[in-house]
Amino acid sequence: MSDAKDPREIAARINTSVPHPARIYDYLLGGKDNFGADREAAEQLVKLSPGTREGVRAHRAFLRRAVHHLAAEADVTQFLDIGTGIPTQGNTHEVAQQVNPEARVAYVDNDPIVLVHGRALLTGGPGTTSVIEADLRRPDDILSHPEVLNVIDFDRPVALILVGVMHFITEQEDPYGLVERYKAAVPSGSHLLLSHITLDFAPQVSSEEFTKPYDKSTAPMVPRTHAEVEKFFEGWDMVEPGVVEVVRWRPDERGAEHIPGGGHAWAYGGIAVKP
User: What's the structural domain count of the chain?
Assistant: First the structure.
């Protein structure tokens, strides 16, 4: 974790030779904040699985619908978005603050490039948004970080957002224990919004093939089954329709369950509330 404020110092720590999940995702979304190693890994994914780009966009659309639900229907006013990725259209704070201008959002990611672009992007009022460089594998660092505490009051309900990030945590790193640590830090009425890559919809693809583009990245990918994704929500009450393919989670009037170009999301998503 780094608290450095100087963008030049932060940029100097960006390793452009090693693919990073946030930058691979940025490339697949059509962004420009990526490097040759990221693009190479992304193109390997596309070659293995044509339609990946459309699926990534569908995954992003799920985040927007889910955050809108939390802000508009669940009256959530605080969001802790961990593994946020490089800022793009329809970020958590944009969606939430469109519903409620007083919504407060703290972003966390372990890629320095996210810190550079995130701080340039955040235009909300003082104390309403923040972005820090930290790793979700170190929950105590995040939960006690001054910039997080400046935005999030952990005595009031919080939406924990872990979208598209837990599949980069290996079994050896105790993914369920990490999520439980975050769940324990928030009070009753808090929500967990989580999505996760799966191969349940692609029995023809081996896990070894699918994850190979990430083998040389800063984090390997670990697809999980429906039952394994549901386990992250244990002890909390699921919000309808439960853990489903992200394109089928409350699709909007544009028919989000149909991905243009025959793409696929290959990801589960859901929301649960703490009793």
Answer: 1
Structure token digits, residue 89: 């259209």
Residue 242 is predicted with a pLDDT of: 98
DSSP classification of residue 84: -
Q: Is the pLDDT of residue 88 over 60?
A: yes
| Gap between the Cα atoms of 69 and 245, Å rounded | 17
CB neighbourhood size of 76 (10 A): 24
- Mean pLDDT throughout 230-242? 98
Quickly tell me which residue has 């070659």 as its tokens: 47
| 157 vs 14: CA distance, rounded Å | 34
Contact 21, 33 (CB under 8 A): no
The set of long-range contacts for 142-145, using a CB threshold of 8 Å and a minimum separation of 24, is 142/80, 142/82, 142/108, 143/182, 143/185, 145/1
Residue 251, both tokens = 């699709």
**Using an 8 Å Cβ cutoff, are 121 and 91 in contact?**
yes
Q: What are the backbone dihedrals phi and psi of residue 127, each rounded to the nearest 5 degrees, phi first?
A: 85, -5
Helix (H), strand (E) at residue 268: strand 267-273
Residue (of 217, 269, 239, 243) closest to 70 by Cα position: 239
34-38, 56-60, 92-96, 193-197 — most confident range: 193-197
Domain CATH code at residue 16: 3.40.50.150
Average pLDDT in the chain:
83
Residues of the chain above pLDDT 90, percent: 47
Residue 2 lies in a domain: no
Please give the residue range of the domain that contains residue 103: 7-273
